[in-house]
């Protein structure tokens, strides 16, 4: 047999075995044994006994590790060049809210980037606390409101929403109202601010678009190994929105809660960890690289996420593909970086890919850091029953159903925000 044919045949025959090894695990009894790094012990083994030591020693070294090896560093400063209110009305949602569409523009050398924040604010509140979150398919998908401008930024195709040739269209107006409980949010006295994430960085493995190239020198094509992937870039966008809120008299910038679902839930956690101006953080079904513990290797793994979405994390994170045991951190420490500010981790029962138990355990193992501040986290190690939220400064629920954002989720977030943020 010709050698090449033999090699091809060999790989063809053994391929199922090769892949079987990396099939996602959904069996609790096959979760590998692992030791979780202690949030209250420094890398050099020193015990952290109080909030002061945490803030002086441990928090900075953890934040630095996640920055350099997981999400990537933002290579420089890029501030808002101009703000333009492109549309506004005091009569939105049947007179219950005002609406404002604000375009932020950033300029450097001969580059320019703009994105639009769509805001609904309750009419009877002078300075509103606000939920801030990214959406997946454009601001016009979140409400059935003809006045919402349609973004021209690149989008992943989704023919069922009328998105083809990577362009958002009229056809998808209002298709995601189910994910944003807008009336309830306004009715409870909060504002909602949303941004289309593709305006900051299109969600594809291409580092020549979005905000990344603003910092390239000479003919650089991609960020350095320790520099930002897309999650960090989206996080940068949230922080610049926060810069804007601090100047908007209609918003209470000391009460902005950053929210995100799935990849955008990973983003909201990282935003909460890196920018202490966010008063609260919500991670909805954020899974691997979000709230879920990586070392459990349940559902999506580090290898799998780096392979499917090579642009989300920094290049250094690839060192931990199929090598989670080498990670000197895990995601409970990402949550701990948010302390003492309120954080809510939510899972869905059918969303095994995101590892609900791993998400719960992260919230649980982050709690000792909250305790240093006299705040109550998750005290019981057993997962609560389905649809039975635990709401402390650290909150958690697992609801029935699939990977999604539902009215049930929002009801809990509002109740919790009333108590811990408002
Ligand atoms: C994929 C990915 C997840 C991510 C999800 C989403 O399923 O594997 O990590 O959270 O997409 O963002 O919808």
TrEMBL record:
Pfam family, one: GCE_fung
Residue span(s) of domain 4-O-methyl-glucuronoyl methylesterase-like: 192-374
Domain of life the protein comes from: Bacteria
Signal peptide: 1-20
GO molecular function terms listed in the Swiss-Prot or TrEMBL record: carboxylic ester hydrolase activity
Gene3D superfamilies linked: alpha/beta hydrolase
Keywords recorded for this protein, A-Z: Hydrolase, Serine esterase, Signal
InterPro entries in alphabetical order: AB_hydrolase_fold, GCE-like_dom
UniProt protein name: 4-O-methyl-glucuronoyl methylesterase-like domain-containing protein
Protein's organism: Draconibacterium aestuarii
């Amino acid at each position: 047999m010709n050698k090449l044919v033999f090699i091809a045949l060999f790989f063809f025959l053994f391929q199922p075995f090769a892949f079987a090894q990396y099939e996602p695990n959904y069996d609790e009894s096959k979760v590998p044994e692992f030791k979780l790094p202690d949030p209250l012990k420094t890398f050099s083994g020193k015990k952290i006994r109080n909030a002061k030591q945490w803030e002086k020693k441990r928090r900075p070294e953890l934040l630095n590790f996640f920055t350099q090896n997981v999400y990537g560093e933002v290579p420089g400063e890029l501030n808002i060049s101009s703000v333009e209110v492109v549309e506004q009305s005091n009569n939105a949602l049947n007179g219950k809210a005002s609406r404002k569409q604000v375009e932020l523009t950033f300029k450097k050398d001969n580059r320019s980037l703009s994105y639009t924040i769509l805001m609904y604010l309750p009419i009877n509140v002078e300075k509103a606390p606000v939920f801030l979150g990214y959406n997946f398919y454009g601001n016009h998908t979140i409400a059935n409101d003809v006045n919402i401008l349609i973004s021209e930024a690149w989008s992943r195709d989704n023919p069922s929403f009328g998105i083809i040739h990577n362009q958002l269209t009229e056809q998808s107006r209002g298709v995601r109202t189910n994910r944003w409980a807008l009336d309830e949010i306004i009715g409870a006295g909060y504002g909602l601010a949303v941004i289309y994430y593709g305006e900051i960085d299109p969600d594809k493995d291409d580092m020549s678009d979005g905000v990344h190239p603003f910092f390239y020198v000479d003919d650089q094509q991609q960020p350095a190994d320790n520099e930002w992937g897309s999650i960090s870039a989206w996080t940068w966008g949230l922080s610049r929105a926060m810069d804007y809120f601090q100047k908007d008299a209609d918003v209470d910038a000391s009460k902005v809660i950053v929210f995100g679902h799935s990849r955008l839930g990973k983003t909201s956690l990282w935003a909460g960890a890196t920018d202490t101006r966010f008063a609260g953080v919500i991670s909805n079904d954020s899974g691997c690289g979000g709230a879920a513990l990586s070392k459990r290797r349940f559902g999506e793994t580090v290898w799998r996420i780096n392979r499917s979405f090579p642009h989300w994390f920094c290049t250094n994170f690839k060192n931990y593909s199929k090598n989670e045991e080498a990670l000197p951190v895990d995601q409970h420490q990402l949550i701990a970086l948010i302390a003492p500010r309120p954080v809510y981790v939510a899972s869905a029962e059918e969303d095994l890919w995101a590892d609900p138990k791993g998400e719960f355990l992260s919230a649980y193992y982050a709690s000792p850091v909250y305790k240093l501040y006299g705040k109550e986290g998750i005290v019981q190690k057993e997962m609560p029953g389905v649809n039975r939220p635990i709401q402390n400064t650290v909150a958690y629920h697992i609801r029935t159903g699939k990977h999604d954002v539902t009215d049930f989720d929002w009801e809990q977030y509002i109740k919790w925000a009333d108590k811990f943020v408002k």
